[in-house]
Structures
1.
Amino acid sequence: MDLVQSINKQYCELNDIDEEVNGGYIRSERSCRLDLRRWGAKFEANAQRPYFEGHERDDVVRHRNEFINYFLKHKDFYHTITEGDPPAWNLPDKSPQRILIFHDESTFRSGEVCAKRWFFKENTPFFSKGRGRSHMVSDFPVQHPSGPFFELNQDEWKQAVKKYPSLKINGDLDYVERTATASINIGTDAYLNNETILNQKSVGDHCTVDCIEYLDEDGNPHIIDCYFKDGENKGKSKGLVEICKDLGIQLPPKIKLEEIRKLLSGHPAFQNVTKLESLALKYKVNVIFCPKYHSEINAIEGLWSSQKAFVRSRTDQTFEKMIKLISESRAYFVERQIALKLCRRFWHTIEAYSQGQIYVEVLKLFFSQLCSASIQSHRRISNDNINDD
């Protein structure tokens, strides 16, 4: 339809015709489809659905309600933001005080394009979104007057560096000093998890990891080796049967691989708990995931929007320039005190959903007419202006 409108607009401009008075289109949608096919284009079913379609799905709404109810129930324990300008902090009414930390990763893409990337055996490295060299950033904004980012004081930082010297070493993973902010150039690491081990049963099969690390129900850490350390099978992978023995699971005789996988799928060792969740359990920190499709609830999305707008408006498309601008965009975010407005928006969003508003209505609180849900009906297409000659 865009092509139909574009052709009609250009035709009217070239022939000095009033487009509104003309009525209809100079070239029909069907004719444009035929033109596109003659030019070698294909028109196939789109397997990907619009991003917004799942916002009011039953399971998503159920998760959203649980998320909202939790924060409304504990709102008096958190720091909030005053109304009006300039925004300021409200201290919690109840004790013990709670600190809300937002977390996410985002990828910044430059215009530099690499023709090839590295693969190692069957493991796929981080994939660069689209074309161009990419840089992934992980950050932790905090809803607290000490923010807007999670930071350590000098003494805490010295202790952290003493325990983890890699924090001060410039390598594949770079850290911002005194913070939990980290970044990595895409293509230097790969995702691996315990699920890959479930594909093998017998001793000697190739295993992509050396051990399984997991936490039991009480939060205690455990490590299970995937390879024999001694004996006649030294150096060989154990397989699921041997791993079951290490986990204290009794298997019936002549059990099949699929049955073992089903049995192990409920064990904590094969629950794909993220490293963040594992770390949170260790230090008694509560991790709450945002509902699917609801980035407007996570204040860190506003951080990415601010940083990317800053970078894109000043970039020359080179990778080195982009890295420099990412650092500057972070300072800009702090200087403009954008975090205060994002934290206030978080609570406004929570309250709007609690009042029964749906996703489209909530977005209108922030973007007004830009989030209109109305859809224009299809216009009548005719071939009235086509010259038969």
2.
Amino acid sequence: FYLCSHYGSLGTSKPTHYYVLWDEHEFTSDQLQKLIFDLCFTFARCTKPVSLVPPVYYADLVAYRGRMFQEVVMELQPPPSVASSSSSRASSSSSTLPSTSFDERFYKLHPELENIMFFV
């Protein structure tokens, strides 16, 4: 179904297309559309409804922020050296891997930010 839940500032509203993949609660189509429409008013960044249901919007924000952190980690990691032969390539690739785990290299949050939605 299509749902246009947000206000278009300059006539720029466009509906969002929703697909129901699995409905464990056996909602009717009207109940499901009303639930999604009502959820569009619960986005924490603004007081107006948004075009995409907030749990999906938050997941997109988390993925975007995670990609930014991962790019920083990858920039700090030294590039693997290119060897001329395949046998030396196999032995040198294991020696160029960082000795720290991914968790140790990944961006650490301040303890006060760990259990809140800081990305909002």
